[in-house]
C-alpha cells in the first residue's frame, strides 16, 4: 500500500519447503493488552540467545528498500519523511557488522504476498517473511516458527499474531489505529468553528463534510471514506462498519449480505460525493492522503493512521484530530493498521540470524528513535511505558499508547480457504463497486455473497 511506502517490509531469502492448511484463528492478539507482558510461548525455536547465530551469517533480506534506497534516506530533506528503515539498517550494521546482507525490494501488499509464496513454493524459502494483512493467513497455515520467549516478552501483545496452537509466531515493530484528521482552516472557510465542531456520529461528519464541499465549489472538498479496490479501502471501511456491530466474518464464514453492511455501504456512497470524482476508489492512495490533504490542502477530512499527523504538520496544516465517528446506535471501533508483521518460516535454515534481526528491530534503542523522531506507535513495552517522555512532542501519540495498552484491537478477519480471493471480492466487488457504479447496494452484496461463499467451499 502506497500510504505505507516508508514502513519497513523485510524478508530473508534462503532455503526450502511449504506448509499445511489449518483454520483461521490466527488473527487474534496473543493476550489482553492490559497485561504487563505477554505470556511465555512454548516455542520450539532455537536458543533465545542473540549470540547463537553465526557471526558471519550470509542473509538475503527482501527489504522494502534496496540498500541504495535506504542509504538515500540519509540525505532526504523532506520533513515528513519516515527514516525508520535507515534507523534499523544502521543498528544492524552496528550489532552484526560481519553479516553479509543483500537488500532487495519485493514490493508491497498483494505483490509482496505472491512473491513470498512463489519463493516458498520454488524452494527458495525466505528467512523472514513480512507483510500486513496476509501474515495472519501464514500463521493459520502453520508455516511459521514460534517466536523466542524474549521477543514475545519484549512487546505489547497487540503487536503479536498467534498460530492455531496459540503460540506467537509473528510480531510487528510498529502499528496503529485509524483517526479522523481535518484541516481547521478549510472548516473556517466554510463557516464552521473547528474548535467546537461536532464529529461524533456518521450524521455529524456528513453534515460538516457536505457543507465544506458546497462552500468549496470545486476548489476544495469535505472528504469521505476511501473505497480503494484493495486493503487500503477495506481497512478503513471495516473500521467504520464495525461501529454498528458488523464485520466480514472469518474462518469458515463470510458475511457480506447483511442489513448493517448495506447501511454502511450507503454511507460510503453518500460520503464519496465529498471527494473529487474518481479519487476515493482510485487504486493509488496518494492523491487523497498526500496530494489533496497534505500538499494542496484542498481536502478537509482524511481517515488515516497516526503517521498522517506528522506529514500534515510538516506541511503547515492547522490540524484537528478526532476519533472515528460511529454509526447509528453504534460504539467506537477501529482496525489495526500499519502493523507490518515479521515472521520466520519453519523451513528457514538461518533462524537465529533472522531472530537477531527481529531483536534489533524491537530493541529499546531502535524503537525509541522510531517513536521520538517519527511519531510511530512502536511495540516495545519499555518505550510504551515511557510514552509521556518519548512522545512529548506528539501529544496525540500519548493517547494512542493508552488505547493500545488498555484495549484489544483486531486486524482484518482471516478466511480458512482462498483468503486472498475472498478479500479481492470484498475490496473490488463490494467496497469499490459501491462508489464506482450506481448499482443497487442490495444487488452488490447479494452477488458478492454468492461469489465469496463459493470461494470458501
From TrEMBL:
The keyword Lipoprotein applies. SUPFAM superfamilies: Periplasmic binding protein-like II. Keywords: Cell membrane, Lipoprotein, Membrane, Palmitate, Signal. Residues 1-18 form the signal peptide. Residues 24-54 are annotated as: Disordered. Pfam families: SBP_bac_1. Residues 25-54 have a biased composition (Low complexity). This is Extracellular solute-binding protein. It comes from Cohnella silvisoli.
